[in-house]
TrEMBL record:
Superkingdom, taxonomy of origin: Eukaryota
Lineage, top ranks: Eukaryota, Metazoa, Chordata, Craniata, Vertebrata
PANTHER family per UniProt: BCAS2 PROTEIN, PRE-MRNA-SPLICING FACTOR SPF27
UniProt GO BP: mRNA processing; RNA splicing
Protein name per its UniProtKB record: Pre-mRNA-splicing factor SPF27
GO CC entries: catalytic step 2 spliceosome; precatalytic spliceosome; Prp19 complex
Organism name: Jaculus jaculus
Subcellular location, record wording: Nucleus
Length: 129
């Protein structure tokens, strides 16, 4: 495990060649003040989090719970609609099958009637000769 880097919190002094340079020291002081302000803001954020974080988390969880409930209800409603549509589809397919079966039976009857009429016509023709 890598240890926490303390590099961002270091306050470097001017390099050895700039030890007597007032501008370099001013930059170091400005850097120190910026880091101090950053730490003050972090402390303030932590204090706010300790005061309000628990309630914010509860509100977040409550909102999340309601979103999940809405999604669940939408899925249950969609599931019910899908089951109804599937039942309707099965019913329509069954009716189509019955219609096709009836057509096949009627075609067979027509074929038999035509055969009977064809044989009767042949006998009529034979009797005519």
């Amino acid at each position: 495990i890598q240890l926490l880097s303390m590099k961002p919190y270091e306050l470097p002094a001017p390099s050895s060649g700039q030890k007597n340079d007032i501008t370099a020291w001013q930059e170091c002081v400005n850097n120190s003040m910026a880091q101090l302000e950053h730490q003050a803001v972090r402390i303030e954020n932590l204090e706010l989090m300790s005061q309000h974080g628990c309630n914010a988390w509860k509100v977040y969880n409550e909102n999340l719970f309601h979103m999940i409930e809405q999604g669940k209800n939408m899925q249950l409603t969609a599931g019910s609609k899908l089951r109804k549509m599937e039942s309707n589809w099965v019913s329509l397919v069954s009716k189509n099958y019955e219609i096709e079966w009836t057509i096949v039976q009627l075609e067979n009857e027509i074929f038999q009637i035509k055969q009977q009429h064809g044989e009767a016509n042949k006998e009529n023709i034979r009797q005519d000769f």
